[in-house]
Amino acid sequence: MKQQLKCLAGSVLHHLAPNLSREVDEGCIDGPQGKLKRLIVDYRTSRAAASGDANSLRKQLAHYWKSARGDEFYDAYPERFEKWFLGDHYPVVEALADQLKKRPEIHRLIEVGCGDGKVLQHLSDRFRQFNTAIGIDLNSNIIERNREVYDDTSLQFESADLHEFLQSYLGSGILLVSYGGVLEYLTQTELEDLFASFKNLASPVMLMLVEPIALNFDLAQETQSRPHGIENSFSHPHRHLLEAAGWTIQFEEVQELEHRWMLMIASA
Ligand SMILES: C[S@@+](CC[C@H](N)C(=O)[O-])C[C@H]1O[C@@H](n2cnc3c(N)ncnc32)[C@H](O)[C@@H]1O
């Protein structure tokens, strides 16, 4: 009920407050009247998910991560790294160790949606074959914070949209990592584009992903990405999209914890 009222308020503001609506269009969500602007974002997100407008949904999800609400995420779930990454999800890192042994030519590490940088730091410390480690995130505040926290390391951090960044990144021998739910904020078309262009431009290349998928997503049958969960982020058919782009799946595991997770390693 509370959610419906918020959605109704967002709809009213979207239609009757053109100044606020314009600011949201421009990605200016915080500051004065931030609460009202967030209602508009939430309304537009639900509307885009309900109507199947993937591009509009993608835009609202990016607005969310660039805003102060995105900032709150990094300190709100301190157990993520220890409990999930070093705990339940760690089999994917052990599988990565086996794969990297066979591919010494993989020497650059790029983590997209790196958040607080803990995963990037761990992978860079554990696998000495990387001579470069870059973390990319849409949220400029966490990137600024990472630059201070990791000042005495060789880790690099860039504030960018991962799709744009990877389109212009030149270099080969890359391990691309997406951990804890990042590709879920990209549309299927963007992901297809990314898998195809990255394979062609950066080969040899590997990908390690740990991404949420909808509980009722049929991994054997479904080939189309669709919004799921309270965020309305995209549940993707990762295997299908990677294989269609010519990648080989080296490791795959599905885990059902608080969320349903896809753990995957692919190479090209
Ligand atoms: C669920 S958080 C995961 C953060 C981190 N990987 C972790 O597990 O703690 C998603 C992260 O992806 C980032 N993100 C979302 N869309 C992005 C995009 N298009 N380009 C770059 N980063 C993005 C967000 O800013 C956020 O830091």
Characterization of the model:
- There is one protein chain.
- The chain has helices spanning 2-16, 18-25, 34-51, 54-66, 68-76, 80-88, 91-102, 118-126, 140-149, 162-168, 188-202, 238-244, and strands at residues 108-112, 132-137, 156-159, 174-179, 205-213, 226-228, 233-235, 248-256, 260-267.
- The protein is an alpha/beta fold and 268 residues long.
- It has 2 domains: 2-74, no CATH class; 89-267, Rossmann fold (3-Layer(aba) Sandwich).
- The strands form 2 sheets. A 7-stranded mixed beta sheet has the order 3-2-1-4-5-9-8, with helices on both faces.
- A hairpin with a 4-residue loop joins strand 6 and strand 7 (233-235).
- It is globular and about 60 Å long.
- The structure holds S-adenosylmethionine.
- S-adenosylmethionine binds next to helix 4, helix 5, strand 2 and helix 10.
What is this structure's SSE topology?
Blueprint: H1 2-16, H2 18-25, H3 34-51, H4 54-66, H5 68-76, H6 80-88, H7 91-102, E1 108-112, H8 118-126, E2 132-137, H9 140-149, E3 156-159, H10 162-168, E4 174-179, H11 188-202, E5 205-213, E6 226-228, E7 233-235, H12 238-244, E8 248-256, E9 260-267
Bound molecules: S-adenosylmethionine (SAM).
Outline of the structure:
The protein has helices at 2-16, 18-25, 34-51, 54-66, 68-76, 80-88, 91-102, 118-126, 140-149, 162-168, 188-202, 238-244, and strands spanning 108-112, 132-137, 156-159, 174-179, 205-213, 226-228, 233-235, 248-256, 260-267.
In terms of DSSP E residues, the strand content is: 15-25%
Largest sheet: 7 strands, mixed
Task: State the distance separating the first and last CA atoms.
Answer: 48 Å
Q: Write the CATH fold name of the largest domain.
A: Rossmann fold
Q: What's the number of helices?
A: 12
The structural domain count equals 2
Indicate the structural class.
Answer: alpha/beta
Q: Return Rg in Å.
A: 19 Å
Please give the share of residues in helix.
40-55%
CATH class of the largest domain: Alpha Beta
Question: What's the number of extended β-strand segments?
Answer: 9
The hetero molecules present are:
S-adenosylmethionine
Strand order of the largest sheet: 3-2-1-4-5-9-8
Can you name the CATH architecture of the largest domain?
3-Layer(aba) Sandwich
Q: Which residues form runs of ≥5 with pLDDT under 50?
A: none
